[in-house]
Amino acid sequence: MPTEEKQKSQQISGFEPYVETKGEEYMGDPMRKHFTKILNKWKQDLMHEVDRTVDHMKDEAANFPDPADRASQEEEFALELRARDRERKLIKKIDKTLQLIEDEEYGWCESCGIEIGLRRLEARPTADLCIDCKTLAEIKEKQVGK
Ligand SMILES: [Zn+2]
């Protein structure tokens, strides 16, 4: 599978950016519905992707009698499985996020409590930190990693 296709599955497709009405309440009903829709669609795409890989692997597993072919095929499968693993984790995160929306706790930074903001959430609907806290967390992470 081309890398590009793999990356595409990590992104969200097919939604209209939310247009706020004047003075609209942040994360009121319409906004929450908007993000619920995005997240559900994203989740469906991911689950579809997972299913497709499993089918694909079942089909191919039987077709390589040559051990060399089998070895490279197993490598390919291992890569695919890792990608699927990431997707499964993402699906879990999406479920968690959907729950947050339901609890009306979605859209605020987990660390400092400010609004994460519509545009950032549309780019990354599972974001639970504002851009500042996220940047800070990444810097800290890098320092620990060194
Ligand atoms: Zn923050």
Query: If classified by CATH, what would the architecture of the largest domain be?
Result: Up-down Bundle
* Unreliable spans: 1-9
Strand content: under 5%
Q: What's the tally of helices? A: 5
Average pLDDT value?
Answer: 87
What layout of secondary structure does this protein have?
Blueprint: H1 3-8, H2 29-61, H3 67-102, H4 118-123, H5 131-145
Helix pairs in contact: 2-3
The structure holds zinc ion (ZN).
Zinc ion binds at residues 109, 111-112, 114, 129-130, 132-133.
What does this structure look like?
The radius of gyration is 19 Å and the shape is elongated. The protein has 146 residues and is mainly alpha-helical. It folds into 2 domains: 26-106, Four Helix Bundle (Hemerythrin (Met), subunit A); 107-146, no CATH class. Mean pLDDT is 87; it is low at 1-9. The protein starts with a helix and ends with a helix. The protein has helices at residues 3-8, 29-61, 67-102, 118-123, 131-145. The protein contains 5 helices and no strands. Helices cover 66% and strands 0% of the residues. Zinc ion binds next to α5.
